[in-house]
């Protein structure tokens, strides 16, 4: 069986804590590897390594730094197929979806190639007599990223590529459920020419996370995961004065207006609701048809599509989606379906009984569809993170806008309509961070930024795009007077311009 340790100072090192976690292969249900869980001391060793390597990296000119990322892109392309298969075997998503996971990370690496331009400072000549001002952006030092299981390639790249391009050293603490691909990414960065110690991978659980949060040599923490942990990390990181940006869970609504193209809307709901078995932070988990006729038309088309979803092996390229990540995740989703039934929602499609022939121990679940879900139900209020779509019927546009706006999560939202007026008003009014208009998963391209509102995001800067440069650098402002011989005499009042 594979044994996965840590990657510190450019080397694979074995775990010494004596603690391990099982890594499953969701499509068979078998344990395929064991991953070491780092102790506080092992985490500290990685931080010390990063701290020692960082000054030279910061002193390397920005263009040389990004050349390493350029080479890394070539290596990711070279190893893409093998990495996608490893990802699918550890996570459970299908190989085409795993390739998408890698590619959305690659897009942020491509964005990071332009970071030398974004790191440029400002300059003002003659802000006062003989006085010039300039500002510069400098790296923070050692920064950390704590990432979730559901995008084991994309989210680590979202974090480490901009941070490293800005001149920081990075500690990555990936999910213990699918650690293979993050490890591979670190190996490729080394092969691309990154100096040892600039990207370290510490595998672990709460113990290593707490060690990162409490360590005064870590200047910033980027987290992605569930909201309760996001809030915990945000608060604990602040206690030692770190910068923190912590992205949490979601309940993404898709509004279907009476004039929407119903076939297009149903296609969008099927893909965005059930793709990756619903294990996406931008998955649509709530459909909101506006008006009874729209709702009835939607259900008529949606039910047969959910019933005919093709659930398959992660390695089956024709499957719509594969298994969930672990048995615990599967049981949790099934429990939510039971809760929904008890709460009085109508289970229009029940996929709980699905079994994959020959792979009965795999973590599979058929698509479930609830109708007549209401705002007070737990299946509406809480993130299920599985192949379960809830239909909440709204009587009019105002009620449809209020639903996602009043929800405690505010990650993504979509509206399907042919009415430009309604779409424009919706985008302006809705209290959610990322909006799609006839686009079901509105993940912004790499040169914008990604971030949810309310309990979907703690902190004031988004991930990737220009915000990532703001997050991973600090601004220094220099006020200088030349010629230095200008004499004005002592002045006891505050200098003004
Ligand atoms: P999770 O919160 O269980 O774990 C995320 C990370 O936190 C992992 O590295 C894990 O090891 C660590 N962790 C877990 N428990 C901890 C604890 N008690 N103390 C310290 N660290 C702890 O999340 P997950 O199940 O891996 O991922 C799914 C969640 O991530 C969903 O809620 C999903 O919506 C969210 N997500 C959000 C975004 C976003 O950008 N908003 C993107 C992807 C996923």
Automatic annotation (TrEMBL):
**E.C. code:** 1.2.1.27
Specify the Aldehyde dehydrogenase domain's residue ranges: 13-478
InterPro entries xrefs: Ald_DH/histidinol_DH, Ald_DH_C, Ald_DH_CS_CYS, Ald_DH_N, Aldehyde_DH_dom, MeMal-semiAld_DH
Which Pfam families does UniProt cross-reference here? Aldedh
**Molecular function via GO:** methylmalonate-semialdehyde dehydrogenase (acylating, NAD) activity
Q: What class of enzyme is it?
A: oxidoreductase
- Alphabetically list the UniProt keywords: NAD, Oxidoreductase
User: What's a GO biological-process term for it?
Assistant: L-valine catabolic process
NCBIfam families in alphabetical order: MMSDH
Q: What is this protein called?
A: methylmalonate-semialdehyde dehydrogenase (CoA acylating)
Q: What is the lineage of its organism?
A: Bacteria, Pseudomonadati, Pseudomonadota, Alphaproteobacteria, Hyphomicrobiales
């Amino acid at each position: 069986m594979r044994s996965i340790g840590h990657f510190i100072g450019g080397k694979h090192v074995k775990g010494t804590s004596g603690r391990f976690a099982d890594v499953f292969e969701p499509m068979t249900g078998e344990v395929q590897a064991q991953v070491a869980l780092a102790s506080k001391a092992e985490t500290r060793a990685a931080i010390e390594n990063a701290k020692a390597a960082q000054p030279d990296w910061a002193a390397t000119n920005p263009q040389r730094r990004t050349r390493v990322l350029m080479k890394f892109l070539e290596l990711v392309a070279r190893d893409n197929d093998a990495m996608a298969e490893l990802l699918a075997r550890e996570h459970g998503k299908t190989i085409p979806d795993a390739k998408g996971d890698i590619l959305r990370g690659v897009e942020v690496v491509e964005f990071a190639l332009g970071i030398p331009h974004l790191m440029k400072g400002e300059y003002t000549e003659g802000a006062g007599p003989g006085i010039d001002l300039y500002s510069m952006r400098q790296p923070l030092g050692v920064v950390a990223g704590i990432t979730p299981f559901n995008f084991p390639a994309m989210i680590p790249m979202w974090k480490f590529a901009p941070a490293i391009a800005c001149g920081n050293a990075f500690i990555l603490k990936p999910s213990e459920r699918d650690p293979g691909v993050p490890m591979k990414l670190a190996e490729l960065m080394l092969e691309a020419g990154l100096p040892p110690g600039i990207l370290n991978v510490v595998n672990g659980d709460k113990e290593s996370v707490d060690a990162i949060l409490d360590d005064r040599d870590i200047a910033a923490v980027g987290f992605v995961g569930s909201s309760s942990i996001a809030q915990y990390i945000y608060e604990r990181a602040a206690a030692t004065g770190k910068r923190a940006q912590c992205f949490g869970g979601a309940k993404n609504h898709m509004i279907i207006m009476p004039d929407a193209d119903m076939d297009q809307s149903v296609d969008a709901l099927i893909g965005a609701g059930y793709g990756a078995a619903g294990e996406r932070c931008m998955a649509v988990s709530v459909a909101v048809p506006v008006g009874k006729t729209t709702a009835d038309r939607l259900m008529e088309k949606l039910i047969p599509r959910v019933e005919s979803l093709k659930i398959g092996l992660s390695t089956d390229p024709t499957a719509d989606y594969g298994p969930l990540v672990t048995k615990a995740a599967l049981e949790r989703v099934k429990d939510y379906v039971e809760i929904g039934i008890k709460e009085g929602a109508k289970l229009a499609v029940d996929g709980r009984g699905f079994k994959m022939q020959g792979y009965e121990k795999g973590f599979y679940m058929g698509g479930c569809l609830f109708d007549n879900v209401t705002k007070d139900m737990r299946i509406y209020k809480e993130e299920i993170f599985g192949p379960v779509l809830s239909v909440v019927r709204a009587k009019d546009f105002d009620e449809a806008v209020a639903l996602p706006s009043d929800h405690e999560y505010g990650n993504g939202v979509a509206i399907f309509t042919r009415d430009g007026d309604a779409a424009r008003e919706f985008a302006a009014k809705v209290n959610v961070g990322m909006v799609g208009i006839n686009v079901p998963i509105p993940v912004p391209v790499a040169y914008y930024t990604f971030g949810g509102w309310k309990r979907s995001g703690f902190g004031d800067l988004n991930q990737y795009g220009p915000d990532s440069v703001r997050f991973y650098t600090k601004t220094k402002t220099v006020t200088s007077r030349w010629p230095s011989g200008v004499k004005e005499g002592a002045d006891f009042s505050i200098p003004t311009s």
